[in-house]
């Protein structure tokens, strides 16, 4: 602290503490005894801070600690006085310098305790010491206020997410255990409300696809439902609900109502934005039947890889698509491949065109692996009796055993 207190804070861009102190001295609020007390307390606090974040024996660490303690005091004064220098000067008068520093540290710890993201689960946090190390370097209180406003908004959104989750018949603990995103839960509830299903329960992926199909097929009229007696939303959550409902109307509904987009692609595109029960449906023929009629028609609801590889092989051989082959039919297929050639791209194109999006990547990988081996066994002209080819097909496809 400079000896000549009249020189304190020569520039208005100096820390808030220095500006408040200068004003306090000028107005006689802060006397020389308080200045002396600050000059005695400040070095103690600086040493404590330097030791907490580095070393109290290194001059650069002490210099950094000086900036930290001023930042902490400035933060506390600014927030407590709401930016009023006169009120801040009185706080300096009535409190010790170290208590003001601890007050700033307490504000940062409280910020740390608030949610960084609007997640309904148990947010993983780092160490509070690392958070303090970062924020005690901040000289601009506006950064703190922005972070505080965002985290308060997250807290309210989490509350809203839990409330809407309750409307969707979900237990709070289940939402927390599944690390649900609050906005996705609210968005799901708002889509149901927009579709006239205010009392609907949470959807699984099959039901979600059905809802989207119903909206586009029946031309459901979508209306604002954030107020009114039916399923009334608490006042404190309405702004959040209206924001998300507006986003659904502007971003998602045009996609839902665009009949050029296949239902399968639509579900694949939108499902990550909504909170769905029983998310994985890798082997659900009911879902396949709903979103991809061509796929279901040819697979006949079969989902096991042997049946699907059999179907793909038929397509690659330009034969009628089947999910199973007799031994005679299999030999006929191998002969056709050797006579006319193998076209694995035909099957790959069918997968890309008709298979549910969720399955396409894994199916293409399975088919590619199959083709690599198939070329060795099915196209081997030396295997004139089809012995190796049939053994390969029995191991990888669905070949019906000959009836005795």
Structural features:
mainly alpha, 65% helix, 3 domains, 404 residues
What does this structure look like?
The chain has 404 residues and is mainly α. It folds into 3 domains: 109 residues, no CATH class; 112 residues, no CATH class; 111 residues, no CATH class. The chain is 65% helix and 1% strand. It is built from 19 helices and 2 strands. Strands 1-2 form a two-stranded parallel sheet. It is elongated. The N and C termini lie far apart (103 Å).
Strand/helix succession: HHHHHHHHHHHHHHHEHHHHE
Separation, N- and C-terminal Cα atoms: 103 Å
Q: Give the C-alpha Rg.
A: 34 Å
Name the helicity range. Answer: 55-70%
Can you give the mean pLDDT? 86
Strand arrangement in the largest pleated sheet = 1-2
Kindly state the number of beta strands. 2
Largest beta sheet, briefly?
A: 2 strands, parallel
Low-pLDDT runs of 5+ residues are: 1-11
Computed structural class: mainly alpha
Residues in β-strands, percent: under 5%
